[in-house]
User: Fold this.
Amino acid sequence: MSHIGSYDERYKNFNWTIAEKELDYGNNSIYNIGYYCSDRICEKGLGNRRALIWQGFTGEVRTFTYNDIRIYSNCFATFLKEVGVRAQERVCIFMDRIPELYISFLGILKMGCIAQPLFSAFGEEALLTRLDDAKTRAILTTKKHIHKIRRLRAQLPELTKVIVVDAGDKPLENDEIAFDMDNVPNVDHFDIFKANRDVPSVLHYTSGTTGKPKGALHVHSSIIAQYITTKWVLDLTADDIYWCTADPGWVTGTSYGIIGPWSNGITQAVYDIGFNAQKWYAFIEKHKITVWYSAPTAIRLLMKEGTELVQKFDLSSLRHLISVGEPLNAEAVLWSEQAFGKPFHDSYWQTETGSIVITNYPGMKIKPGSMGKPFPGIIATVLDQQTFEPIRKPGSVGLIALKPGWPSMFRTYWNNKEIYDSKFKNDWYICGDRSSIDDEGYFWFVGRDDDVINTAGHLVGPFEIESALLEHEAVAESAAVGKPDPINLEVVKAFIALKPGYEPSDDLMINIMNFVRKKLSPLAMPQEIEFVDSLPKTRSGKIMRRLLRAQEWGEDIGDTSTLEND
Ligand code: 6R9
Assistant:
């Protein structure tokens, strides 16, 4: 691992200007992510290198060079400008993993707008909440998803530009606009928006325990951390073919599915398909993937398929494997060593941190089940839950906390400075997760410190699910909690008290499940519903979600009076 240097040396000698210098960040007063991910790579003479190898679910393959993504993103930026979108307005990207998603992301940033990617499986309610909160001006979408937006238009007066990127001959409605990047004149030069370091770039919505999802706002200089973590943790070099399985509707898909690889000028492959062991292995074999960034749920699903399937493919191109999103259990690490001859390296971070903060750095001894150590430039610890002072004793569990100041740290929650401020205690940023640190400085994840449900590596907020449930005609009260699941870590379980006149039945259960799936997303849909007469409450009338959760996990919650003020 000589080209990235040993962990200890790197940690000791690191400061962020090392990363800035490598990127030439701020040279000629340019700070825009869009430039660093396309124009700059071309200026270095790498315009003909492949930036994107895209494969659709039908097997169709398209390839784009850095010069292609430079020009196409210029086309998007020019188009946004021409239709009257202004700098710093929010532009949502709402589509499956097609090339336009990746390329328009750069175009939006070049134009100086704030990119707001949303997961294409989101239903109307999930979309409405996020578009309304951000007062989104424009949305880029496809024929497949336009119907959801059409039904919301009346409730979103600020959303004046609805842009369909694959309209073809299909008639559009009212003021919708068609834009087809393959059928517009090339734009060789675009006057890239002169962002400075602190100009907002990307808005990613994430769920908390209470209230609606919150928009974590990032700025252009986040690229400094995304660039160097990609280079050192994902260990990417010029010859690599990199595959990140995450959807850009989630932060991994933008930080490490767009900005990280493209600022490093490497070739990345994208597969517009959900999990499918056979097809995934065939994809790795076909495109000779060398570096693979995935998630524990996917690894557990692969484990289920067994090593026999692995042996049917030539996966010898694989060189480095990394995982994110949920605890990477020791069995998964050991299995991957057996199946691929290489362990998965864990990486821990959040929408809010913008880039990897704790990880099994390449070359470092891996302790299966541990997340590893802080990335160079990151000061991490665990804090006592009461005093918010660092816990010095190895093995004691506390709150994971980071010293603010790394470049990709979020700058606020959109419209919600109060909650943002509440995340800081004694000059530490509190991640909201619990962990211990062993005597060698390795972090061991214990669990979340809130009620957010992590299903298959995706966070879903109980409040959002409960709000959706309450809109169902039969539901009087509800509580949504995470229930343990051997594959997905957790799935959503809902406890429901019905309104008078409704009786529990299988039909009603399925009806309610589908109601949530359509409104929010398949991830938020309860996999299990338990009908109850009433829900446990505190004296002030709040539902004791934690009690229900503890029951599902077989945990002893002890004296419930401690929950009274939750
Ligand atoms: C990047 C991303 C963040 C939350 C985080 C934690 C969980 C992420 C983890 C992990 C254990 C890991 N999480 N990585 N838990 N081990 N390696 O996932 O962002 O969607 O905001 O989720 O996911 O609970 O706080 P996000």
Observations:
- The CA atoms of residues 480 and 494 lie 4 Å apart.
